[in-house]
């Protein structure tokens, strides 16, 4: 690595993303994305076709996170080990934050795979009785579960290399009902809390400890939103059509849900990226939001991965720290800082390594002060449901929001920071994470965290643009459409009356009695009057 790299203020998201993937030596990059959170605690995916700075609308600093955006349908089939390792880190993080919820027996096996991958074979000299209790794999632990984890690690996984354990972990995680779930908190029409999510296999709705809906991608015909209301149009067998309606906490959350749905449907359902179309959230042309997925689809990504021929890149794994408080983390060498320049630009200082996909909380549902706890699910007793699609996913309620942390935002900073810590497998306790929400990390604390990825944006942030009323925007769109149609009609009229184009379509129109009457009684007199006025104006200008 050099001292860093610089991307201009108008650099697109794709440029920044490509720089990160180049630093990670990652070729199968289509599964990943960059996520950030705005001051209202609303999550966003960085759009690659738009300017980075324009998407970050509030005052810096900003925290961005490298995340898995599209979970592979078969993670074990990924071509390169570096890709599998990054997906492994993401799913391990999902497990820790309660997003990958599963039954106790599955949880114990997954945790044992993590232990084997990161501390190796069981060694009585290094691993005393109760050693598994010193690691935090899930939001909540029990002694029985910890004993089960240690038993599996001791007896069943001996001899597995880190790569083998990670591969087995991915194969097991893939079979779980909540694999690939990026939960969006909502309410159904009855006011019951629910989590909506898009997976490699379709759309799911989770309530309590059950999956109450699962709809395959080929059954989803349309996604739409209006304000806080999200609509999913489903067409099933026997021409049965269903509209599922849910209510998001805020209009911004609903729009984010809609955009995620559009992207996931395009990625997993389409055969070619050339089939991607711009989608509108409304049936009216001049109303609503429009969005278009800009990447490749899953089939194209798999075909491209099969063509990769290179020596496997070296992977620097870091072992877990055997403590709930994570007292020590091995840090890589830090690169020198990037000097400021007078030119307005985004300076990104690449540090050694990348943050563990577990450490930041931006991938979990964000608890917004605007809606509070109203949209968080509560543990419920098992509910009777005759729906055949209802599936019990775990022994307890699905509640990933329990580990939510706010985004640290400094009020008076003029720097745009893209923070990222060194890849490490150390699992930190929930208590430590809660302590981190008390204050924004200082420069000294960031130094102690080791490897960082900083993006510094110089100059004062421009004031936020005033939001234009939606009704005014709709009227403006309607006027533009009307003027466009009138212009087209005028152009067609001029071609019909003034041109000598001998096309069958034009010839048939010219021969109709109605057109001849219009031409001689209205158009010709109007043309003579207009020509006379033009001559008068020209003569007046010449005389003066």
Automatic annotation (TrEMBL):
Keyword Secreted found: no
Example of a GO MF term: cytoskeletal protein binding
CDD domains associated with the record: FERM_B-lobe (cd14473), FERM_C_FRMD3_FRMD5 (cd13192), FERM_F1_FRMD3 (cd17102)
Pfam short name (any one): FA
Span of domain FERM: 1-272
Region annotation Disordered: where it falls in the sequence: 318-341, 359-381
Domain of life: Eukaryota
Cellular component aspect of the GO annotation: adherens junction
Location(s) in or outside the cell: Cell junction, Adherens junction
Polar residues bias (residue ranges): 362-372
Family matches, as InterPro entries: Band_41_domain, Ez/rad/moesin-like, FA, FERM/acyl-CoA-bd_prot_sf, FERM_2, FERM_central, FERM_CS, FERM_domain
Transmembrane region(s): 471-497
Keywords: Cell junction, Membrane, Phosphoprotein, Transmembrane, Transmembrane helix
Function: May be involved in regulation of cell migration. May regulate cell-matrix interactions via its interaction with ITGB5 and modifying ITGB5 cytoplasmic tail interactions such as with FERMT2 and TLN1. May regulate ROCK1 kinase activity possibly involved in regulation of actin stress fiber formation.
Protein name stated in the entry: FERM domain-containing protein 5
Organism listed in the record: Sus scrofa (Pig)
Organism phylogeny: Eukaryota, Metazoa, Chordata, Craniata, Vertebrata
